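Closing statement on the uridine-5'-diphosphate sub-project.
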Amino acid sequence: MTEPKYKRILLKLSGEALMGGDAYGINRQTIAEIVAEIKAVVDLGVQVGVVIGGGNIFRGLAHASNGMDRAQADYMGMLATVMNGLALQDAMRAAGIVSRVQSALNIEQVVEPYIRGKAIRYLEQGRTVIFAAGTGNPFFTTDTAAALRGAEIGAEIVLKATKVDGIYSADPKKFADAVRYDRISFDDAIAQNLAVMDATAFALCRDQRLPINVFSIYKPGALMRVVLGENEGTLVVC
Ligand code: UDP
């Protein structure tokens, strides 16, 4: 039987990943495809925590730059991640994955609050845990929530699912000679000013020696290859 390299992972799924080709919101076909990729690794016995973003619905910073109070806008952004979390749970249920949504903001009629010990227990029971509402604090991002929850639950790696298949030396859309790194150190990524995750998230992973694998969620089988320890996307290590 195929042996996964990691027993427990933290997957960061951006809100934008759920849009597929749409301009806004949640594309049901896309979310079903993403869930099928997740199911394959769950079926392998890997414990999966997911931090879900909200950028497909509401991004605090964008509204703050239009004059809205930043903290207020960020709370709206966090609530958007809860909506995505519920949509993801629903798609998981349809695919036969048992999951729980935990929220960093208390809205107990809708989802249970984030309780670290309970989340770990769920993972041990083979349930997938969806972490919603980011860190629960304005001025942060769900990337930082991914680093934080990853460290808290003892994940062996943070998998950052994006639309691009890794980290490049320059923007591959603008520079034809941009090269994709298979592996890069935290220090080199910082020195080269490569946009991997936001700086807070990145610093937290580096300090906790928590590796990050950046890969494309739209590439079939990529998540599985990362989990099997194959060369997929870019691995950021100490
Ligand atoms: N957000 C926040 N604190 C957090 C996480 C998220 O205030 O700990 C807000 C912030 O406004 C952000 C929005 O929620 O723009 C959606 O999260 P994010 O932009 O990280 O989502 P993604 O880009 O991954 O879809």
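DSSP finds eight helices and nine strands in the chain. With this model delivered, the sub-project is considered complete and its resources will be redirected to Aim 3.
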